[in-house]
Amino acid sequence: MSPSSANSTLIVRLRHSPDFAVHSHGWCHLAPFSWNDDCLYRVVRLPKSGPRCVALAWSTGTRTVRVTIPGRRIGATDRQSLREQIRWMFRADEDFSEFWALCRSHPALRHCALNRTGALLRSATVFEDVVKTICTVNCHWRNTKRMVTNLCRLFGEPCPGVADAFAFPTPEPMAAASEQDFQEARLGFRARYIRELARRVVDGELDLNAWCRQRDPAVLREMLLSVKGIGSYGANHMLMLLGHYGMIPCDSEVRAYLGIAAKASAREVERRAANRYGRWGRYAFLAYKFERVFCKQNYVDCPD
Asked: How many helices (H) and strands (E) does the chain have?
């Protein structure tokens, strides 16, 4: 998808590389993101203008993201909302200088400091990230992409003027949906978890903003594990998305990369990962992730 015209622009400056933030993590391939012609597109939801498909571009080696908003110019409220969304997605307020200092003497990870890597793209809201994380559990990546696309198509607002483009749904339409509605999304066992998540958020039982305020990763992990559908892998993955990197979300990709037999227990995989990357402390996941990136073995680089 691509916007047909460009009447407004917004500049967001970062401390780190937007290029590595996007290409080191698979989120750029999940709706309502799309990657095309060296540009990242996303259908955003603006408080006054509704859904808009914006284009995000940058030059290699720079730390500035240029956001192009098609159609009529947006007002101050929408500009502020869009700026906040982009800054959150690109982790503009995170400081990776301590991680870079640790990387300088490492054969592969020294590239992190040189390229100012560390940030990984995330969604515009915590709710979106939780739903997408649940959609990565026990399935192939191509199925994750299909499920997320279906959710946007079935429950998200369409973007005017852009065919087959939808904003990511808010909790309300998911909470109100029937089991039959969710069956069409082909989520399998994940449907009941996502439906319950949406209902708990809408009812005020679950405050996702509290997760952002919680600075103790151990406490936050327990909060995450209280959500049905979020197990050890999901909790560690959400910790990463919320800016805590001390634990590695161990899935089949970690197992394969570390050369661990398929019959090994999940606990054994976690133990082996912790032994290998434990010396990185609160940056263990970043050490694992960018070791794969700079050794050209990142799963995002592999075909479906």
From this structure: 15, 5
Closest CA to 54 of 63, 62, 13, 45: 45
Nearest to 14 by CA among 77, 102, 92: 92
Domain end point (choices 207, 227, 242): 242
Write out the residue range of the structural domain in which residue 299 sits: 245-304
Task: Give the pLDDT band of residue 302 (cuts 50, 70, 90).
Answer: very low
Copy the structure tokens of residue 77.
């409220």
Q: Are 38 and 139 members of one domain?
A: no
Contact criterion met (CB below 8 Å) for 210 and 204: no
Query: Does residue 264 sit in the same domain as residue 203?
Result: no
What tens digit of pLDDT does each residue of 110-169 get? 999 999 999 999 999 999 999 999 999 999 999 999 999 999 999 999 999 899 999 999
The answer to whether position 90 is within a domain reads yes
pLDDT tens figures, 61-100: 889 999 999 988 999 999 999 999 999 999 999 999 999 9
Question: CA torsion sign, 1 to 59 to 100 to 268?
Answer: positive
> 237 with 249, same domain?
no
Whether 186 is covered by a domain: the verdict is: yes
- The answer to whether the Cα torsion of 69, 30, 301, 238 is positive or negative is positive
164-176 pLDDT, tens digit each: 999 999 999 999 9
Q: Take residue 31 and report the two structure tokens written for it.
A: 């709706």
Token couple for 5? 């015209």
Indicate the pLDDT class of residue 1, thresholds 50, 70 and 90: low
Interior angle at CA 120, CA 10 and CA 162, nearest 5: 50
Select from 93, 115, 137 the last residue of a domain. 115
Yes or no: say if 43 and 159 are a contact pair by the CB < 8 Å rule. yes
As given in the structure block, the two tokens for residue 207 are 């405050």
- N-to-C CA span, the chain: 20
